[in-house]
Predict the structure of GTP cyclohydrolase-2.
Amino acid sequence: MTSKQPKYEYVSSARLPTRFGNFTIHGFVEASGQEHVALSYGQWEAGDTVPIRIHSECLTGDALFSTRCDCGFQLEKALQNIVEHGRGVLLYLRQEGRGIGLLNKIRAYNLQDSGMDTVEANEHLGFDADLRSYDICQLMLDTLTVSKVELMTNNPRKLDALKQLGIDVVARRPIDHGITKDNKLYLKTKTEKLGHAFDPHLFK
C-alpha cells in the first residue's frame, strides 16, 4: 500500500545574498508540482512576533518593472522593511495574475486596455476576481518556526486566510508603495471591488 503524497512539502534551503541583504531561501512544492519559496532574514525564537509579507508572483511587475501594477514596488519595499527591522519573512507564492496565470493575465491586460477594469476583465475570461490560495503559508511558517506575525499587506483576504490557518496576526502593516499614473485606476478598483485597504486620498 503506497502512502499518500503530502499536499505540500519542504524541499531545501540555501544562502541568498541580495542587494537588500543576506537572506536564506527555502523551497517548497505542492503535490501538483507547483513550486514556491520563502525568504527569511535574521533570527527569532519560537513565539516571537515576526514581520512577514505574502507576495504572489508577478512576472511583469517583479522582474520586468511594469508600472501598471504595484507588485514590484511592494516586493522591494517589503524586503527593505524586513532588513530594516532586523528580521522577517517573505513568502513568494507562484500564483501569477491573482491565480489565473501569466498568459491569461496578458489577455486580461488587453481587455483592460479596451476599457474594462481588472475585476471585469478576469470575469469576462471566465475566472473569479481572485483565485489565489494561501494554504501553503502554514507549512512555510511552521518550517520557519513562525506562529505570530505582523503582516505587511493591504489585502484583507490575506489577513483572514492566515487567521483561518491558526496563525496569530498581531498587526497589519499597510504597504502603500508604488502608486503611479499607470496603476491608479487598477488600485482604485481593487480598493472598491476587492476591499483592499488603500487610503482613498492616494487616488486623487
Residues 8-95+132-196 form a domain with the Rossmann fold fold (CATH 3.40.50.10990). The CA atoms of residues 151 and 172 lie 5 Å apart. The chain has a mean pLDDT of 91. Residues 71-85 form the longest helix (15 residues).
